Amino acid sequence: MFRFPLLARLLGTFALLLPLAGQADPRPNILLIVADDMGFSDPGVYGGEISTPNIDALAAEGLQFTNFNVAATCSPTRAMLMTGVTSHKVGMGNMKEIMADNQKGQPGYETWLNDQAVTLPTLLRDAGYRTYMAGKWHLGGRPESLPSARGFERSVALLESGADNWEAKHYLPAGTATWVEDGQPISLPDDFYSSFYYADKLIEYLDSEPDSDRPFFAYLAFQAVHAPHHAPESYVEKYADAYHDGWDVIRQRRYERLTGMGILPRAAESVVSSDWGTFYDTPTIDWASLSDQERAYRARQMAIYAGMAEAMDDSIGRVIEHLKASGDYDNTLVIFMSDNGAESTVLTEIAPLFYRLRYDQDQADLGRPGSWSEYGPGWAYASNTPFYSYKGSPFNGGLRVPMIMRYPGVIEPGSRTSAFGYVTDITPTLLELANTPAPDGEYQGRQVHRIMGTSMAPLLRGQSERIHAADEAIVYELAGGVAIWQGDYKLVVSSSSAIGARSGKLLFNLRDDPLERHDLSAQQPERVDELMQAYRSFVNEHGLVEVPADYNAWEQLNRNAREQFLDRHGRQLLIGAVVLALLVGWWLYRRFSRRQR
Q1: What pLDDT is recorded for position 284?
Q2: Are strands 442-443 and 446-447 parallel, antiparallel or unpaired?
Q3: Under 8 Å CB-to-CB from 381, ≥6 apart: which residues?
């Protein structure tokens, strides 16, 4: 590691001078693509029925991961993706929306990317890369935490967790929807559709320096397929008849395809709800119990989700076609991944009046401008085939996601790996491939966190079958849900209040049991103790602030939403209450005066 803060700048200067010496910069371009809330089996190359030819082509040209893991929600994943450091150190120790009271204001829980984090785009920019971003940021809205302040030379970004895909409208009762370009607030165009817009902007940025010899780092972070689910009707129509058989049938079909493709070994047990709900004591919805009208409505919801995913895939294809036309594609490392598992929450059940007043929920209008569509646990369960649970959970349904890397001349086309990978591994991998040193606790005269991930470069080059040593423990925690991986084993620690989770300490051998059905904790108590010791060491070393024993994510979400609403609108509400009291007082005074006469 390098301790000298000027070294990265000198390397960047050297890279800039290479063209003057008549040599092209040999380092790769990098295109990092992140889908939002996409389940493991949604892309075609992971067994899905959704048409994703451009994502599938990346797998055919590169390396497909079957055991890549992230955080169970978006901002912690994005914080680790951009820094290579645990989210507990860089400001996203928990989601802002569900931050426990005892975590608020603590170091590493600022709810924005803090000043001790040096980002991947910053390091690459200082090493001579052009750096561009288009899409969802969700790493803080203060000026010092915007993409323009964290290494991106050009950027357009949605700052919050999500928004409407047709207009500048927030999707939560106390939420906001803010887009900035190069750090300044902007208005969206009249023809805005999120996936198309982000692809257009990234192409615009790539075109802004057509004669540049500097390589680029481009970050394309879609809102798709986060709720609300929206898609142009031409995409939805393709799936009009695809989902009338229900989620159990789709889940089984996906499982047949992905096991037939060799993505995962086939389990002895069924993966459909007939025994899934019983086995896990988790309520499931029987498709056959729904009325014809309900089934038609829910089939339409999934068709919109599929259309939204295909529209994203088309947008990826447009960016790739642009790179091919410009001659950059052959020297471009492309990464595609999701930020967490599929989302099961039904917001219209949490705040029905808000969504009824603010959005159109008629079946014929779902997916169109002004509408609200979300697909709930039934379809999320199909999206996460064959895993248990959903976004927010420490089980595989929340953490294991599709991930593909494509880099000609380095990665063998059409290859696949079951090696365990973690989101913090991406930053050190890209830095190594970009010949850019990682800071060793100091950068440009300030103290920064050391990168914690492990470079995947030896795996990508075919020099190793592993990323992490068999005895290395990798620790994850979010909102009381804990996962510790070591070799083939994973220990899950979860309270019953965690989203979609069983409670207690559960040990799994993921090589034999990727579906996390067979708890080995009683048979291997020593291993459980060893992994728990690794967790306690992680807590102490990295300042992890654990949630209270009675923490409930949904109750905290509602409490924080109320606080946020009062912080934003409290003054107006107070003024309104005073005015209303004065009016009521005046009315009562007039009425009393008339009676006295």
Answers
A1: 65
A2: antiparallel
A3: 247, 251, 273, 276, 284, 344, 390
Element (H, E) at 66: strand 63-69
- Using alpha carbons, list the distances in angstroms from residue 60 to 45, 485, 593: 9, 29, 85
Query: DSSP states of 27-42 as a string?
Result: SPEEEEEEESS--TT-
The mean of the pLDDT values for the chain is: 90
Our answer to whether residue 74 is catalytic in this structure is yes
Is 494 within 8 Å of 480 (Cβ atoms)?
yes
> 94, 110 in Cβ contact below 8 A?
no
pLDDT in tens, 385-398: 999 999 999 999 99
* Structure confidence by residue, pLDDT tens digits, 448-500: 999 999 999 999 999 999 999 999 999 999 999 999 999 999 999 987 555 44
| pLDDT tops 50 at residue 13 | no
Cα gap 484→534, rounded to integer Å: 8
Confidence tier at 592 by pLDDT (50, 70, 90): confident
Identify the active-site residue in 74, 229, 449, 542: 74
How much is the pTM?
A: 0.91
User: What span, in angstroms and rounded, lies between the C-alpha atoms of 32 and 337?
Assistant: 8
User: Tokens 């409670």 appear where?
Assistant: 503
What is the three-state SS of 316-380? Answer: HHHHHHHHHHHCCHHHEEEEEEECCCCCCCCHHHHCHHHHHHHCECCHHHCCCCCECCCCHHHHH
Catalytic residue among 88, 138, 449, 468: 138
Q: Catalytic site residue 138?
A: yes
Contacts of 176 (CB under 8 A, 6+ apart): 160, 170, 568
The one-letter code for the residue type at 312 is M
**Neighbour count for residue 587 (Cβ, 10 Å):** 10
Residue type, position 446, single letter: R
